[in-house]
Please model this.
Amino acid sequence: MRKFIESVKKEFLVLIRDFEGLSLMFIMPLILVFVITLLQERTYETVNETRIPIVLINNDMDSVGFAFTEGITNDDFFDVTIIEEADSLQMEQSKDDVASGKYQMGIIVPEGTTKSIRNRVLALVNQQVPAMMNVDTANLQQSVLVDLFFDPITKDSFRNIIKSNLREFSSKIETRIVFLTYSRIIDAMTNQTTEINYPEKPVIEFDEGYVCEFGQIDVPSSVQHNVPAWTLFAMFFICIPLAGNIIKERYDGCLDRLKTMPVSYLTIIVSKLLVFLMVTILQAAVIVMVGMWVMPFAGIQPLQLGQSMGGFVLITVSAGLAATGFGIMIGTIAKTYMQASTFGAVSTVILAALGGVWIPLYIMSPVMRQISQLSPMNWGIQGYYEFFLRDAGIINVLPYALKLFLFFAGCVCIAYFYKIIKNKHIA
Amino acid sequence: MEKTAYIEINNLCKTYIKGKDPALDGLTLSINKGEIFGLLGPNGAGKTTTISILCNLIKPTKGYCKINGFNVEKEFNLIKPLIGVVSQEIAIYKSLTAYENLMYFGSMYGLSKKELKERIGYFLEKMNLTKFKNEKIDHFSGGMKRRVNLIAGVLHDPELVFLDEPTVGIDVQSRRVIIDYLKELNNEGVTLLYSSHMMDEAENLCSGIAVIDYGKLVVQGTPKCLIEQNDSKCKTLEDVFLQLTGRNVRDYF
Ligand SMILES: Nc1ncnc2c1ncn2[C@@H]1O[C@H](COP(=O)(O)OP(=O)(O)O)[C@@H](O)[C@H]1O
Ligand SMILES: [Mg+2]
Model:
């Protein structure tokens, strides 16, 4: 036991003197989680808060013009300036304003837009009941040109939004006119006057939300996703200093010295495991505390914890074990520190990308979500989501913890058998 | 009366890479208790390989060795407490201080904290390192590192110490301190197996020597006997050595 305690003490000393390793383990993830949370919060705000400035010239001054004005004003996407019955000078001015970037887009709903829709309807109805209509359809103007002009940097998607909005409004009005015209004809034929209550609300409405296996959940805020995700990333990154520690000990000859001493290899490796496991737990604690108490100072909403601290501890310890096991495996198999750090860094980044650290699971495609389940970081994130997003208890976290534990066991077994095979080879 | 050898090396062979020349090629040696035994040979002769096999760090391709009657490969756990190893490389933690290193390695032998403290104090004083005990090894000079490396191998009072070129590449002062200490250690009854390619050092230190080359035993005896046995031209062990191993420059590693 004393040998074990002394070994732990030694590992601890070696660790705290390894400044690069320490900064890799603590400073880097803190910077990452901070910057990325902040970035994602800001982009989220930008999309929501900055509206696109546009100018709308309503020369129609009839149903279509007004409906379109109202529709586009109510849309949060645009910051609309409306000019009614503009003269040619004002129209030129608007075009110049778009060209100079004051507006991203200009729309001119020309005079007679509504009228031409009406004419079109009349022409249509006339085909069926010419007697009732009594119009000369030959001279009716049936199409209008809506003038759209864009700042060259405007994205196609915005243009399309505008165009489809315009089409939607005009066809809505067309339908309405068609309906009203027919109802008037029917009234005339049946000699009655009907008061039609034409519904303003559309038939189809959208119910939006994000779906996951567990039913509907709110999309996690930037901080609720990033804190657990980058905690896991940081944990797995310790495979580099841990593998480095093992390799260095081997190269320094210290391991050979220990092999001639009455101490088992198990004592040596378990003391490393324990110290690095403590590091991963400390990492989780530090990053979570920063999320709760420091991030709010940067204007980020504070991290919300679930109730079941047991679940949190369970997933943290098992993820920590998985990461340490991974490090032990790399340290045992890699021949040089270069090999270990390259493989460690690349594999951690790949596991992180796959596991949903950068691109959260809930926006991955279904195929990617399947592949993602191969990454231990995925299990960790899912386990943490249970705690941070769904406020679930130990029972729900357990399957993920178990998987992580198996990963740890697998890594240690691989390292063990590799060592046995190699030792045989030395003979 | 036949004395049983303390260290018995029997037909030891080691081939690192199949098809290449063997590092050891049927080496047989026996070393008595209480000797300072010098394992001499040019670079690449197989000295480190021999010591590594005796310390169970690598396995022989053929042959076996015994220490104090215990088979090295099979009963190494019984041998561990008896031996101390001073390796050719500096095998201590560079980021720890001298004191921390010695405390750690000493505790692996189950020595109590109090006892260790005393011993470490004694050895540091002896090796002129007391002033630097709380300095990191990283900041030490080559000679200082060698001395700490030596202490780490003898701290637990072993009855047999392996020393692989313990004086290579260090200043005269450090070398003096180490050689004097080895003599003292031997006077206390400790057996030393010491490898070197420095003949003058071996000549005045060793009670018995073996010269090996290409993994084979060339000659074994006391330094005095060896000088007498050979040509009248040979006045020192170095002369004998050159005559036996030839004058070609060896530079493996
Ligand atoms: N790990 C190894 N792999 C392959 N060859 C080795 C290895 N270690 C030593 N050798 C070779 O074995 C021979 C003996 O080496 P060594 O025992 O270190 O010699 P010495 O210590 O006497 O200088 C040399 O030719 C060396 O090149
Ligand atoms: Mg050597």
In short: The beta strands of chain A are 52-58, 78-84, 105-109, 147-150, 210-212, 215-217. Residues 156-190 of chain A form the longest helix (35 residues).
